[in-house]
Amino acid sequence: MKKILFPTDFSETANNALVYALRMAENQNATLFVLHAYEMPVISATANPVMVQDVYKSIELSNFENFKDQVPQIRDIAKQHNLDHVPMHFILEEGFLNTILKKRVKEEEIDLVVMGTNGNSGLDKKILGSNTANAIGSLGIPVLSIPHDAIFDGINSIAFTTLFSSQDKTTLETIVQMAKGFNATVKCIHVATAKDKADPAVINSWKENFKNDNVKFYIVESSDVEKAVFDFLDEENIDLLVSVKRNRGFFEKLFTSSMTKKLSYHNYVPVLAFHEE
User: Where would I find the UspA domain in this sequence (predicted)?
Assistant: First the structure.
């Protein structure tokens, strides 16, 4: 991962996520692209064209001045965490965030997007905020979601939910390389249900394949996949959850609001979502 994109609205949540974005960029020897998107207001079609133009110019100037003022603060945050050596590229652009994200990911050949999220106030009462949910669903590259209450204190333990598919194996190889930079252990968890149990031969081949890496495998039998994963996060003191965004089912279930009433892990554990090829 050589290019990481970090959208920000300069909020406390975003500034908190910035530390993770900088750490990830440091880990990967990557450049961090800091993006601030803003939207123009809708003005009545009957308004005077000259007035409309003046309003838009004023808004653009205001956003530019705000962005200019915020850049030193972002650099200060990096300096406070001894991360001011991480190369940063700043982008200010007008338009809808998700549209701009898609465009920038393609134009800049971005490898990873890091976003802060405000808890379960987002789209369809999901834990992830609507912008983060949209990004995970549409960008086609990994998206790292940082909850508001997450505090970076190193990444020592990474959980990876797996079905032992070929795509998961490719993803695990990427995770292992990332984990080495943090000197972290990767803990692969497979929840075996009555309908979905991995082939022991496949599991053994994975163990053989990653025997020289800091990877552990856990097979948990349960009829409740989501709860089994949540319990695992708490029991193993997980610092980062990695999951593959599959076409249906698991990932969406993992983030339904009903589970948040039972477990509180989502308040502080970042989630890295990969796309299934």
Answer: 1-145
Report the predicted TM-score, pTM, of the whole model to 2 decimal places: 0.82
The structure tokens 């450049």 sit at: 31
Distance of alpha carbon 159 from alpha carbon 208, whole angstroms: 19
Locus of tokens 């549209």: 99
Structure tokens at 21: 């974005």
Topology alike, domains 1-144 and 155-269? yes
Give the span between the Cα atoms of 242 and 251, in whole angstroms: 11
Largest CA distance in the chain: 72
C-beta separation of 114 from 20 below 8 A: yes
H-helix or E-strand spanning residue 120: none
Distance CA 221, CA 40 (A): 52
**Token match 């393609």: residue?**
106
Q: Which residue has the tokens 């650099």?
A: 75
Amino acid at position 157, single letter: S
- Read off the pLDDT of residues 206-237 as tens digits, 9 standing for 90 and up: 999 999 999 999 999 988 887 888 889 889 98
Q: Is it the case that residue 129 has pLDDT exceeding 60?
A: no
Superfamily name and number for 155-269: HUPs (3.40.50.620)
**Distances from the Cα of 106 to the Cα of 48, 98, 136, 141, 144, angstroms:** 37, 12, 15, 10, 18
For residue 132, give both structure tokens: 């983060």
Rg (CA), the chain: 20
For the chain, domain boundaries: 1-144, 155-269
What's the mean pLDDT in 151-162? Answer: 91
Q: What is the mean pLDDT of the chain?
A: 81
Question: Whole-angstrom Cα distance, residue 136 to residue 7?
Answer: 14
Please tell me the distance from the alpha carbon of residue 245 to that of residue 247, in angstroms, as a whole number.
Answer: 7
Tell me the pLDDT tens digit for each residue of 21-33. 999 999 989 999 9
As a dihedral over the C-alpha atoms of residue 246, residue 116, residue 141, residue 187, rounded to 10 degrees, the angle is -60
